[in-house]
TrEMBL record, chain A:
Keywords: Isopeptide bond, Ubl conjugation
Pfam families according to UniProt: Cullin, Cullin_AB, Cullin_Nedd8
Cullin family profile domain: residues covered: 396-624
Protein's UniProt name: Cullin family profile domain-containing protein
Family under the similarity heading: Belongs to the cullin family.
Matches recorded under InterPro entries: Cullin (IPR045093), Cullin-like_AB (IPR059120), Cullin_homology (IPR016158), Cullin_homology_sf (IPR036317), Cullin_N (IPR001373), Cullin_neddylation_domain (IPR019559), Cullin_repeat-like_dom_sf (IPR016159), WH-like_DNA-bd_sf (IPR036388)
Highest rank taxon of the organism: Eukaryota
SUPFAM superfamilies hit by this protein: Cullin homology domain (SSF75632), Cullin repeat-like (SSF74788), Winged helix' DNA-binding domain (SSF46785)
Source species of the chain: Eleusine coracana subsp. coracana
Biological-process GO terms, alphabetical: ubiquitin-dependent protein catabolic process
MF terms in GO: ubiquitin protein ligase binding
Automatic annotation (TrEMBL), chain B:
GO biological process annotation, one example: protein neddylation
Protein name as annotated: Defective in cullin neddylation protein
Known role: Neddylation of cullins play an essential role in the regulation of SCF-type complexes activity.
InterPro entries assigned: DCN-prot (IPR014764), DCN1-like_PONY (IPR042460), PONY_dom (IPR005176), UBA-like_sf (IPR009060)
GO molecular function: cullin family protein binding; ubiquitin conjugating enzyme binding; ubiquitin-like protein binding
Gene3D superfamilies cross-referenced by the UniProt entry: Cullin, PONY binding domain, DNA helicase RuvA subunit, C-terminal domain, EF-hand
Length: 755, 250
């Protein structure tokens, strides 16, 4: 038979139709034999190694078949067979034939040696697929009619199932296939290069045979083997690697597996295998890794190891409780270090340094969270809660933060741009937010601000205002109204002084120049101090001012605050050196005494000035015992002031500077007794606030139980301070006493509001 | 007008003579007891509200003890009264009597208070008064009455015009009251107040203390920190724990 060319058109009749003759069984048998032969031919031609594509495309085989059929006169025999109810015979025949063929194929695959096993299997699979296509085409009529009605498996699927049953599940092949695949994967994991295309083909074959086949015959064992592989590997690494390196390896393996899946496994395996790696390499060793000595999380935090931290975050994120473990360790580390920081007596000696340390710690960890933890909010919250915890462990934190701001506003921000100022103040506000006792901060801030304003020692008015605005935004108008009042007083005083000198210039003549700040009581921190005896020259001009002021503001009362003032004095020393001394009012009173005496005892000075003892001692110390500022000489030359000392004008005083600053009006960390006093005042101030809160609550609720009152009051006041439940109880009892509230007759825990 | 049988009329007469009550009262008592004399006496003495309409006698009694130049019975008069009654002025029965009188202040009785008080007690002579003393003391055993007397004491023992009770007086009163009621912690309480508190006692603290005594056992096993007790009592509990008198609850 010559090949090529389309079949010649023949005038063939579909004899079956025409004659409607029952196909006799022998006839059917013969027909089947033909088809059987055709099937074998298809397979044979595979084996012959001819390019199947060519064959197929040129319809060679089909032509051959058709020609054969035509030749035998059994065109559309299959059709005939089916039509004449021989579908079952056809189908069974097909099944048997294919089965027989596959068993042969199986043997040849089994016979393949070593590495060729997989290739052979793959090749045979390819052939089978192609054959199957062809067969299906031929038997299409049967597929469409007989198969559905008799509920038998369609041809293509039948072909796959048979392949599965007789090749894949054949005892000789089944385990060998799995072992081969797993072995190759293992070798690749150990660094060898394997034939990925082949692997792909095989796994695709398994998927084609059905996801259940892929899963049962490959994926499940693959995952188990992988688990034990990674379990072993991780065990080995963890013994000899530090945390950072271990995580690098884990990351590498994870990426490898994902790449493996994308190259030659089914996509559905990705989640499963990564889950195995995550569990074996990370989850199982989580605690050991985090707490690893010298290289664990804490060390990474300390050394700012952003890359390692970022990797740790990314990996731990994948496992349950991974991030919460990291967070917990970070939190307890922060709390511990923070606690040590705020309770270390060395650190506490310099409040400004102390606060700078806190800010640095905050910055450091902010950066870590931003760079390595992707700005994760839960970590941000953990950081905030830790800071809040330890800042409040030291009850001087409010004072120290105020001192820090004071330092910045006094000199630290000199020359800084507006932006820089904002940045620093915003950072301070962050610390401020952590404070539980904001009312204590307010008290100190007021004190320090007062000193800054009165001594004129503020770097920038804008910076001051900016800080007040921030406090107002954070705490409301009440918090800052008094502070703003202080600024107003300063301005008003300026205007008043101008007017005073304009109107009274002639009266004053050559007297000392006065600069008065009129402070509204209530806005300024009150430090009641008995006024001291002013030198007569000063007294005169002060009285003139008082008269002038009360002339325009009758009904007001003025009290000189001699513990808050400053003076500039011109002094001439032994060799004629002239210096201008900037001193406190107290110091001025003391120094002026030496205009009429060369030497004075402590007692004489005390009597003349009536300055309170502790202030006087401090004052004399700064005048007589500080190098470079000792305008007075003390006998004996000891460091401390005793009541038996005598003081002399120091003729021999020298200084490189013409203007010498001796005043002690800089805000300082309070001494113990001062601190006690301030705290007491704070406690006193809190009582009315607590009572007001109780009354507010009871007025609206009318009847409320004790615990609810305590929690409501706490909630209302927490923006300013944390009220002590015992104090709340005492206030309630006080209100009962004053008949604002009463206890319920039956239930002691219930209180009633009395209108 | 009742038509009484001869036996009944005799009983009424007898009753009136013995008790000094009016005919009306005698009839009430005898009817209530079904005309048994003994029962009638019980009835009469247990109901002191039956007015002993012998106001004349009461006025005489009052006048005996009142100050010569004021319309009050003061310290001297009270002292005399106690003498006549044969009781110590510090005896707690005086407190019960003051309560009956609804006396406003310690060591003073107004005319109204004295007379109304004796009427409430149901006596009009010193002898009868003396006989009544045991039953007056017995009133302290009644829970309800004790509470009333206890709460009355706060107002009564106060200085005129003061809102709170001075510590010394309070301690004195407590010792008196709880000696009767036998509170084992009374001495610790008084000691604690003197050492730690040293200030006056508010009404709330006073009233709540009775609750504390009545409901909390001396080992404080059922003391609840969240019980909204006055803070002074909370501090007292702390004091007891510090001094090892009771164990801290875990």
């Amino acid at each position: 038979m010559s090949g090529g060319g389309p079949p010649r058109k023949r005038n063939f009749k579909i004899e079956a139709f025409k004659h409607r003759v029952e196909l006799d069984p022998k006839y059917a048998e013969r027909t089947w034999k033909v088809l059987e032969h055709a099937i074998h031919e298809i397979y044979n031609h595979n084996a012959s190694g001819l390019s199947f594509e060519e064959l197929y495309r040129s319809h060679y085989v089909l032509n051959l078949l058709l020609h054969k059929l035509v030749k035998e006169g059994f065109l559309l025999s299959a059709y005939n067979m089916v039509l004449h109810k021989y579908g079952e015979k056809l189908y069974d025949g097909l099944q048997n034939t294919m089965t027989w063929r596959l068993k042969e194929i199986s043997k040849s695959i089994e016979a393949a040696q070593g590495g060729l096993f997989l290739e052979e299997l793959n090749a045979k699979w390819m052939d089978h697929n192609k054959a199957l296509q062809m067969i299906r085409d031929i038997l299409m009529y049967m597929d469409r009619t007989y198969v559905p009605t008799s509920h038998r498996t369609p041809v293509h699927e039948l072909g796959l199932n048979l392949w599965r049953d007789h090749i894949i599940h054949s005892p000789m092949i089944h385990s060998r296939l799995l072992d081969t695949l797993l072995d190759l994967i293992h070798r690749e994991r150990m660094g060898e290069v394997i034939n990925r295309g082949l692997m792909r083909s095989i796994t695709k074959m398994l998927m084609d045979l059905g996801p259940a086949v892929y899963q049962d015959d490959f994926e499940k064992p693959f995952l188990e083997v992988s688990a034990s592989f990674y379990s072993g590997e991780s065990q080995g690494y963890i013994e000899c690697c530090d945390c950072g390196n271990y995580l690098k390896k884990a990351e590498r393996r994870l990426n490898e597996e994902m790449e493996r899946v994308s190259h030659y496994l089914d996509a559905g395996s990705e989640a499963k295998i990564t889950s195995v790696v995550e569990k074996e390499m990370i989850a199982n060793h989580m605690h050991r890794l985090v707490h690893m000595e010298n290289s664990g999380l804490v060390n990474m935090l300390i050394d700012d190891k952003y890359e390692d931290l970022g990797r740790m975050y990314a990996l731990f994120r994948r496992v349950p409780d991974g991030l919460s473990t990291l967070r917990d360790v970070m939190t307890s580390y922060l709390r511990e270090t923070g606690k040590q920081l705020v309770t270390d007596p060395e650190r506490l000696k310099d409040p400004v340094e102390f606060v700078q340390c806190l800010l640095n710690e905050k910055d450091k960890h902010d950066k870590i969270i931003s760079v390595a933890f992707g700005n994760d909010k839960t970590f941000q919250n953990a950081l905030n809660s830790s800071f809040e915890y330890f800042i409040n462990l030291n009850n001087r934190s409010p004072e120290f933060i105020s001192l820090y701001v004071d330092d910045k506003l006094r000199k630290g921000l000199k020359g800084a741009t507006e932006e820089d100022v904002e940045v620093i103040l915003d950072k301070v506000m962050m610390l401020f937010r952590y404070l539980q006792e904001k009312d204590v901060f307010e008290k100190y801030y007021k004190q320090h601000l007062a000193k800054r304003l009165l001594s004129g020692k503020t770097v920038s008015d804008d910076a001051e205002r900016s800080m007040i605005v921030k406090l107002k935004t954070e705490c409301g108008y009440q918090f800052t109204s008094k502070l703003e009042g202080m600024f107003t007083d300063m301005k008003t005083s300026q205007d008043t002084m101008q007017d005073f000198y304009a109107k009274k210039a002639d009266e004053l003549g050559d007297g000392p120049t006065l600069d008065v700040h009129i402070l509204t009581t209530g806005s300024w921190p009150t430090q009641p101090s008995p006024p001291c005896n002013l030198p007569p020259e000063i007294l005169t001009v002060c009285e003139k001012f008082r008269a002038y002021y009360l002339g325009t503001h009758s009904g007001r009362r003025l009290t000189w605050q001699t513990n808050m003032g400053t003076a500039d004095i011109k002094a001439t020393f032994g060799k004629g050196q002239k210096h201008e001394l900037n001193v406190s009012t107290y110091q001025m009173c003391v120094l002026m005494l030496f205009n009429s005496a060369d030497g004075l005892t402590y007692k004489e000075i005390e009597q003349a000035t009536e300055i309170p003892a502790s202030d006087l001692k401090r004052c004399l110390q700064s005048l007589a015992c500080v190098k470079g500022k000792n305008v007075l000489r003390k006998e004996p030359m000891s460091k401390d002031i005793s009541e038996d000392d005598t003081f002399y004008f120091n003729d021999k005083f020298t200084s490189k500077l013409v203007k010498v600053k001796i005043g002690t009006v800089v805000a300082q960390k309070e001494s113990e007794p001062e601190k006690q006093e301030t705290r007491q005042r704070v406690e006193e101030d809190r009582k009315p606030q607590i009572e007001a809160a109780i009354v507010r609550i009871m007025k609206s609720r009318r009847v409320l139980d004790h615990n609810s009152i305590v929690s409501e009051v706490t909630k209302q006041l927490q923006a300013r301070f944390l009220p002590n439940p015992v104090v709340i109880k005492k206030r309630i009892e006080s209100l009962i006493e004053r008949e604002f509230l009463e206890r319920d007759k039956v239930d002691r825990k219930l209180y009633r509001y009395l209108a | 007008m009742y038509k009484l049988g001869r036996g009944s009329r005799e009983k009424v007469q007898q009753f009136m003579t013995i008790t000094g009550a009016s005919e009306k009262v005698a009839l009430q008592a005898l009817k209530a007891s079904d005309w048994h004399l003994e029962g009638a006496f019980d009835f009469f003495y247990n109901q002191p509200q039956i007015s002993v309409a012998n106001t004349r006698r009461l006025e005489d009694l009052y006048n005996k003890y009142k100050e010569p130049d004021a319309d009050m019975i003061m310290v001297e008069g009270i002292s005399q009264l106690c003498n006549d009654l044969m009781v110590d002025p510090q005896d707690i029965v005086m407190l019960v009597i003051s309560w009956h009188m609804k006396a406003a202040t310690m060591c003073e009785f107004t005319r109204q208070e004295f007379i109304a008080g004796l009427q409430s007690i149901g006596v009009d002579s010193i002898e009868k008064f003396r006989e009544k003393l045991p039953s007056l003391r017995a009133e302290l055993k009644d829970d309800h009455k004790f509470r009333e007397i206890y709460n009355f004491t706060f107002n009564w023992a106060r200085e005129k015009g003061q809102k709170s009770l001075s510590l010394e007086t309070a301690i004195g009163m407590w010792q008196l009251l709880f000696a009767e009621r036998q509170w084992p912690l009374i001495d610790h309480w008084c000691e604690f107040l003197q050492v730690r508190h040293n200030k006056t006692i508010s009404r709330d603290t006073w009233t709540q203390l009775l609750e504390f005594v009545k409901t909390i056992d001396p080992q404080l096993s059922n003391y609840d920190e969240e019980g909204a007790w006055p803070y002074l009592i909370d501090e007292f509990v702390e004091y007891l724990i510090e001094n090892g008198v009771v164990q801290r609850k875990k």
